[in-house]
Amino acid sequence: MVNVRIIVGVSAAYDWTRNTYSISEAYIKSIEIAGGTPIIIPPTYNMSIEEILDRIDAVILSGGPDIDPYLYGEIPIPKMGQINPLRDKFEIELARKTVEKGKPLLAICRGIQVLNVAFNGTLYQDINTQIPNSIRHAWHTTTGTEVPPNYPTHTVKLKRDSKIYRIFNKEVLRVNSFHHQAVKDVAKGFEATAWADDGVIEAIEYIGDKFVIGVQWHPEWMWDSEMIKIFKALIEAAKTK
User: Fold this and answer.
1) Which of 52, 69, 104, 230 has its CA 20 to 30 A from that of 60?
2) pTM value?
3) Residue 1 domain-assigned?
4) Rounded CA gap, 226 and 241, in Å?
5) In the chain, pLDDT over 90 holds for what percent of residues?
6) Widest Cα–Cα separation across the chain
7) Which residues span the domain enclosing 183?
C-alpha cells in the first residue's frame, strides 16, 4: 500500500516594499517532522481559494504583522503596528473557506487573530496599552528577538476536555511569546481554551468536531519539543477527512 502524505498548505508573508513572499523554515520543518508535505500559499488578489483547498488536506495560518482594526470595527490606536491589507483580505477568506469546507486548520500567532476576526471576533490592538498589569508577551523588537525563538517565556493554562488539552494531555504548558496583540471578544462558534497568567487568551478552538485551533504562541519554533504534537494532531485530523 502506498503511504500518501498529507499536504499542508501554509500561508506566506508578503513584503510589498520588495515585492517578495517568504515563510520561516520552522513551519516547513515542523510539517515535515510531523509527517506532512508542506505547500506554501502566497496571498494574492486573484487566486481561487476554493481551488487551493481542493488540492490540499490541511491549512496553517502563519504569524506576521497586525491586522487592520477597521476589519473588526475599531479605529487604530497609537501602538498599532504595521498592517498588510493583501494578507488580511486573503487570509480572512482562506480561514472562512477552510472552516466551511471542514479542512483541519491550525492558526499560529497572527493566525489566531485572523481566525478570530474572520468570524467577527475582536482584538486587543496593544496588550500593554489595553490590559492593565499584563505580563510581557512581546519578546521581539524591530531588529530581532530578545530571546532564542524556541525559548519558553511564560506559561499557559489549558481548559480541560478541550481539543488542545487532549493533544498535550496536561493543564499547563510553557510557551514562547512574540506578540503585542491578542484575542479580545471571541468569535461566535468558538471558545477560548488557553490563557496566560494575566488572563490574555492564548488559544481558541471551534466548538464542535472540526479540527480548528488557534494558538497565540509559536509552536513551529519549538518543533524539537512536545509542541510537535500539535502539528501531528493536525495531520492525523486530515487523515480522517
Assistant:
1) 69
2) 0.96
3) no
4) 25
5) 93
6) 58
7) 6-239
Say which CATH number the domain at 100 has.
Answer: 3.40.50.880
In a domain, 149, yes or no: yes
Residue recorded with cell 488572563 = 199
Can you give the pLDDT at residue 3? 66
**C-beta separation of 114 from 143 below 8 A:** no
Q: For the chain, how many structural domains are there in total? A: 1
Integer angstrom CA distances of residue 177 from 8, 149, 170, 189, 196: 24, 8, 19, 26, 10
- The DSSP symbol for 188 reads T
- Measuring CA to CA, how many Å separate 118 from each of 12, 90, 210? 18, 11, 16
Output the average pLDDT for the chain.
95
Looking at residue 227, what DSSP letter applies?
T
Residues assigned a catalytic role: 109, 218, 220
Interhelix angle 25-33/228-239, rounded to 10 degrees, is 60
Residue 142 covered by a domain: yes
Per-residue confidence at 206, pLDDT binned at 50, 70, 90?
Answer: very high
DSSP state of 34: T
Residue 179 belongs to a domain: yes
